[in-house]
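## tool: complex_structure
## caller: assistant
## args:
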Amino acid sequence: MRLTGSETSPYVRKVRVQAMEGGYWEQLDFNELGTTPIDPNAGIANPLKKVPALELGDGMVLFDSRVICEYLDGALGDGASFPAPGPARWTALRRQALGDGLLDAALLLRYETSLRPAELCWNDWCDGQTVKIDGALADMEAQAADFGDTVDIGTITTACALGYLDFRYKDKGWRETYPALGAWYAEFSQRPSMTATVPPE
Amino acid sequence: MRLTGSETSPYVRKVRVQAMEGGYWEQLDFNELGTTPIDPNAGIANPLKKVPALELGDGMVLFDSRVICEYLDGALGDGASFPAPGPARWTALRRQALGDGLLDAALLLRYETSLRPAELCWNDWCDGQTVKIDGALADMEAQAADFGDTVDIGTITTACALGYLDFRYKDKGWRETYPALGAWYAEFSQRPSMTATVPPE
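## result:
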C-alpha cells in the first residue's frame, strides 16, 4: 500500500505514528509529496488533493487521516488504536476530533499568516481561529490526568497536534498555561514513534 | 440528548437526516444555535465552538458530525449507517470523507466571498478551493452508478454536500457536468429526511 504525504503534515504524522506504534510502518510505501491549498499537487490520487492519501492494492484510494488510520488499524495493525463501540471508543474519537479541530484551526491560521499575501490578511479571522486553538488546549488540559499511558488514535492525535504547535508556533508558550498537558506530552513525545517523525525544519 | 446546531449547517443536516432515517430524531432535543469562524458562539459546549455538538446525559459533549453520527447510529439507531469493518465500511467512510471534504472547501470559499471584507479576498485561495469542490464532484459522478439505494453515512453525506451547493451556489450548474450524480440526487433528495431538512432561505 502506498501512503502519499509530506513529513511536515501533522495529519500524515498521525498515520506514521500509528503505523510505527502498530509495528507495520515498514509495510507501507511512503510517497513523499507536498501540497498547499493554492497549489494543489496533481500527483496526489485523492480527488481533494490533500494528504495523507492511501492507495490500496485494488486501486481504491482512501483519505483523510481518520479513515486511513481506522482502516490500517484493522488491516495491518491489531485494532488497538480504535476501541470497539463503547465508552473507550467515544473518548478516543472525541479526542481525535479535538486534536484534528485544533489542527484545522492552526493550519488555517498558518495559511492566513504565511501563505496569503500580507495585505490580504484579516485579523478577525486570525482571532477566531485562535479561540479554537485555545479552546482545544484548555479541554486537553482538563483531560490530561486521564490520558495515563493510553496509546490510541485519541492520544496520538493529541500529541501530533501539540507537536504541530511546537513546529509552527514555537513562541506560543502553551506549556505555561497548560502544565498537566505539558507534563503528559513531555513523556509521550519521547516515544520512538514520535521522535522518528519530528517534522524537519 | 441535546443536539446543538443550525438549520443552515450541512454538517448538522447530516446528523438530522441520519436521525430521521433511523427513526430517532424525536428523541433528540434540538438546540438551534448558529456560529461563524469570526464570531464564535460561547453558548456552544464544543470547545472548538463549531456545530454540531451533542451533549450526552452524563455531561460528555461529542463533536464533530462524524463522531456524533457514528455514536447515534449505535446508541439510538440500528447501526445501519456505519457498516461493520469490511469493504462496505471503507466505501461508506470514504464517501463521508469526500462529502465532508467538498463541504470544507465550499464553506471556506463562502467565508472568503461572503464573510471576509471584499478588499481582503484572495483569488488564488478561491481557485484552490474550487479545484477541491470540482474534484469531489467528479469522483462522486464516477461512483454514482454504485450508489444504488444505499442509505448510509456515505450517501447521506454526499446528499448533504450536494444540497449545500444548491443552497449556497445556486448558479454552479453541477448537474450539467455530472448527470449521473444529478439523477441519483434527484431521487435521494425526495426522501422525507431530505425534504424535512432543506435549509431555510
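## assistant note: Residues 87-191 of chain A form a domain with the Glutathione S-transferase Yfyf (Class Pi); Chain A, domain 2 fold (CATH 1.20.1050.10). The interface with chain B takes residues 36-40, 47-50, 60, 62-64, 66-67, 70-71, 74, 85, 90, 93-94, 96-98, 101-102, 105, 111, 116-117, 120-122, 124-125, 127-129, 131-132, 135-136, 138-139 of chain A (CB under 8 Å). Handing back to user.
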